[in-house]
Amino acid sequence: MDQRQSTADEVAAGFRNLYGFAPDGVWAAPGRVNLIGEYTDFNEGFVMPLALPHSALAAVARRTDGVLRLHSADLDVPLAELRTDELKPLSDGGWAAYPAGVVWALREAGHTVGGADLHLASAVPTGAGLSSSAALEVVTALALNDLFELGLSGPELARIAQRAENDFVGVPCGIMDQMASACARPGHLLHLDCRDLSVEQVPFDLAAHGLGLLVVDTRVKHALGDGAYAERRDGCEEGARLLGLSHLRDLPYEQLPAALGKLTDERVRRYVRHVVSDDHRVQRVAALLEAGEVRAIGPVLTEGHHSLRDDLRISCPELDLAVEAANAAGALGARMTGGGFGGSAIVLVERERQAEIAEALERAFVEASFTAPRIFPAVAAQGARRER
Ligand code: ADP
Ligand code: MG
User: Is the pLDDT of residue 92 over 90?
Assistant: First the structure.
């Protein structure tokens, strides 16, 4: 899918055409890119994503008869009609499992959700590592929060959305994507502690520094459900257990060499090294940004890519090429972002060289006979909100 961004009025009109009456409102929730801190969220560590302008918009009306009707303007599938009291986890409801899972998770948490009619249109590309799934969950959660006056906070909605994806859809994702979509602010990075969900909004005005951040969607579809993500997750848990820790977050960076010496399993050692060093990279990037040394984060991003490629082993030839070609063309730094095995890379560039570096990337992909990437500048946008 490669949809343009619909307006709130367009999505409301789509709702009216479909259901024959006006929605109660229109809500929006964005996709995200992660600047640094990968596979650290489920280790209760640190991440630093930003919200993209690309959002999922949902026009929704409240119901009280236990009926849930779900429709996506972006897919050629009929309206799904379900009953809120008959929702079954892991029932493979296709795309509808994401919003239905949110209703299920709210009800599991003891909230009253009496039903809803929903019509969705999203500009977040799917399977590009930009979190179209979290956008869909969070927009649903926010709409229901407002319509049923649940009074839940952004982090609480993110937890509900994550529960929907983990236990209803069946994807073992961490909390980063949902928190970014629910809580990001325009012009800021979300410096998130995934242990207690405390956040610090870090100013990230690249243009003011003469810089830009390119997103390079390799168009290689990632599939987190295929077990590789779960395998990394298990390996990290194994590492924590072998080191006598609750989570890898609890291993201070200074103690990493000693801890690695205690691990005999080569695979677990690599995973531990990645997670603990990437947590440290998040803190280094935070310190550099605080000090105004924005250009200096470039090499930290590239270092993070090498860790994902060599230690976690979740990169792919297209992502490696994006990083190498960008750096060879004079980028300040680059790395793959998101779950890996495809999806997107990010590239930090001098603003005046942005177009030139994008062209060099396109050429490198042609020379390698890879599918042409989709390249666009990332601007830190607003998290979930009511549009009308
Ligand atoms: P990502 O979150 O990286 O984009 P996922 O595999 O986690 O990739 O989620 C993609 C899935 O989310 C799609 O296969 C689909 O089920 C659902 N989805 C995302 N956007 C839409 C949309 N606009 N309409 C319907 N379903 C969507
Ligand atoms: Mg996803």
Answer: no
